[in-house]
Amino acid sequence: MVGVPGTEERVALAEVEERLRRVRSRINWYGLQRNFYISGTIIALGVALLIVCAFSLPPLWFTVFSWPVLLALVFALLFFLRRTVSEWLDLNLAARHIDTKLALKERFSTLVAQLTSGVIGKPQPSQLWPHLLRENTTLLSHWTTKQVLPHRIPWHILPFFLASLIALFILAVPLMSSRSDASPFSLDNLQQVLGELPERATQAFERQMSLLPEPSDQWGKSSLYNQEQPPPGAMRLEEAPPGETRPQEARSLASLPEALQQKIRQALQGLPDKAPKPQEQKEGTPGKEDRRLALKPSDKTKTPDAVTEAKNLPPGTTEQQIQGNRRGQGNDKKGGNPTNIGSGTQTPAQGSGIQQLERAQLDRKPPKGAFQPSPDSPQMPSSGGEAGAGGPGAGSGTDPRLYGEQSILNDGSKSFQLALETTHEKTHKGEESETEDKDEGGIIEKSTGGLSQQQSLDDTIRKSRIPAEYEDIVKRVFTRGESR
Amino acid sequence: MSEAPATQLINEFQETFRRIENELAKVVVGHGDLIRNILTAFFAGGHVLIEGVPGTGKTLIVRSLADVLNLSFNRIQFTVDLMPADITGTRMVMDRDDGRRDFVFVEGPVFAHVLLADEINRSTPKTQAALLEAMAEQQVTVAGATYRLPPPFFVMATLNPIEMEGTYPLPEAQLDRFFFKVRLTYPTHQEIQRIIGSTTTNTTEDLRPVFEHAEAPEKILSLRQLVRDVLVAPHIEEYISALIHATIPAGAKYLSTGDTAKTTLAKDDFVNRYVSFGSSPRGGQTLMLGAKVLALLDGRANVSYDDVDRLAVPTLNHRLVLNFAAEAENIDPNDIVTRIVQSARKIRR
Q1: Choosing among B7, B225, B231, B238, which should be mutated to test the A contact, i.e. which has the most A CBs within 10 A?
Q2: Would you tell me which of A183, B17, B75, B345 could form a disulfide with B116, CB atoms 3.0–4.6 Å apart?
Q3: What global pTM score does this model have?
Q4: Which of B298, B301, B303 sits opposite A131 (nearest CB)?
Q5: B7-81+111-203+211-228: which CATH number, 3.30.300.30, 2.70.98.40, 3.40.50.300, 3.30.70.1400?
């Protein structure tokens, strides 16, 4: 190496360069940390502020507020990123830092500037260059890197940690609440929500139904008509489509004591309840409640029901009228005669007051589609005819076959009248056909020969434990009956 | 590594400078800073303009300096009727030995190493301009012929701030050619006492020349060369440039629009209000050379920020052209430069 130009300078400058690079790396690391901590502090505080605002501000204000905050955070991040780049020291800047710290009067920086400009191995830039080199090498023994090195960790880490703790605390507050134990998007939570869905739907429906003016709607689906399955092919208007709340309401009504149910039935029908005949039970015929609505004129097994129902007619109803009803059914089967509609030939169909009330209740449901009754349905209007034409009173669309001949009905010594307007939509379970009852009201007239038992009914009601939601309804029904 | 010659050169410079200061201190009472500035300008190759009231020792300082340096010295008393030829010299018809007559150039007083232009503002601008070429180019042109002035050439002019009637203020171009403009203040009480005691007796202090007469010019030129060898870091150059640029008001004419300097100083409102024109680049050159002299005097081979700051006021004050508002409010250019220097400290790093 001896004789090679610049060898002496390189040897002399080895220590200078080593110290310079060490100082430079430490200063750069310090600056990087400092800017990181400062920007981190600002971002942590900003995030904490956003979280607080998210829980405290309305969505609109949070949106309005969050955008400037986010922009400020982005600006701060970019600012400190740019500052980090601009503060990144090269060798000259590091030498100037050393000069400032040690008051070397720019000796070191001048030397480094000459070195970086490539003075080594070239003709000396000045006759004073050796003096500058000697000065700096001599001064190396007067200072150490510790004098000029910054701290390993800047003090900015303290506010950074503090801000981070604040942000984490604020972030953890909503996470630690009991309602947030499970993730709202987890599979378990989804299953739970799906399991609660029917119940919530029921509650929502009940809340909605409670807003209706007539609480008697609750009677639209009595459990009296759900105790037995209808025969195949028979249409049950009282059967609610799946997913609706009527079966549940019927079940609630079924929870009433049996005695109360019988009393209610008697009060509404005006006749004492009769137990089904043993012969009917043996034949496996459906219950009388089903028979009242699901009669088929062609079904031989159900023809006695007409006679049975005829017993519920008011006094004075003749056998001929009953047979007239049968003919009316036969005409319906043949295509329907509009003249028969409203002639009161279907007396058995209106024998039960509960049945009429139930029909009125079902009719309150808004229609969802066209009703397609079976040919033997008592609600089926005859072709060319107009349902309810000539009907007795308010029910302009009411099939008079349901309620019998008006004149016959008026023969009763004691009767009351309920005017209800309702529509109903139902779907047979297991069948894809959708039926709709378009009766929009009607007049229910019924002999109230059983009103002599009013006192005993009241006693029964008082003694019975009636659910709160049905107590008013029962009382209202009886009040109406008494007023009549 | 040849350390000894460089160090010896610096030591020699320091020793020469201190010897000159000590010799001048024998006859000039006080004014230590003024003498240092004058010597700084001398070794930097510049000229000095001294402003002071009469009787404060301006002429004494210059004459003593020439004696100490063992250089030729001339003095020109500028008056209204002084002609340029009276300064530069003229061609005269002279009889030759063979009887023929010929034009011969007769050198004027400008042909000297040290020239004292006393009360330079009393001559006409034409005469003042005759000195411009000599100061800037160190040559004179007479009748189409150019004559080099003997180096080293050093002009020290004086201004009488009083008795302004019949005076011609120096044009800005001529002011810019002076390295420093120093202000000679009244001596202190003790200094006056010393002046009175030392100059009113028969005993006079003998000045010992620092150099031999024959070798003095070469010695001085070598020292001037040494001054220019002082190393300067780029950030010092940047700093000086920022200082010079800071003296230029924001709304000044002829301002460059394509300035992309990284290190710039914000325009001081003081500058914008009171300065019409800032310093020229020659001011930066002067500042750099003066800082190099100070670095050598400090034994360093490099210029520092402090060297620049120390010379900023005498270097830049006469290069600022103040406006009417400054004249009306009696604003001193030294204050403006001082403010600029103070504001420039923040760009140090």
Answers
A1: B231
A2: B75
A3: 0.59
A4: B301
A5: 3.40.50.300
